[in-house]
Specification:
single chain, 68 residues, mainly beta, 4 strands, 0% helix
Length: 68
């Protein structure tokens, strides 16, 4: 399974493209690259090894959030 997402800079038209690869067994890998608004690479792809994914279930909060 693989997830792709982007983080945009507040100003300037650049963003970081991320790809998280989650294999059925073994460690996850996170790759990221800084790109300009046209999708051209500004830096090389960097890859980070992550730990093994463990699914989890949490309890629903008993207090409702209040949006202000």
């Amino acid at each position: 399974m693989s997830y792709v997402f982007q983080e945009y800079a507040e100003m300037g038209g650049t963003y970081t493209l991320y790809s998280l690869d989650v294999p059925s067994r073994g460690d996850m890998t996170l790759s990221h690259q800084w790109q300009n608004a046209d999708g051209e690479a500004l830096r090389e792809v960097k890859t980070e090894k992550c730990g093994t994914f463990h699914s989890f279930k949490g309890k629903a909060p008993n207090v409702k959030s209040v949006l202000k």
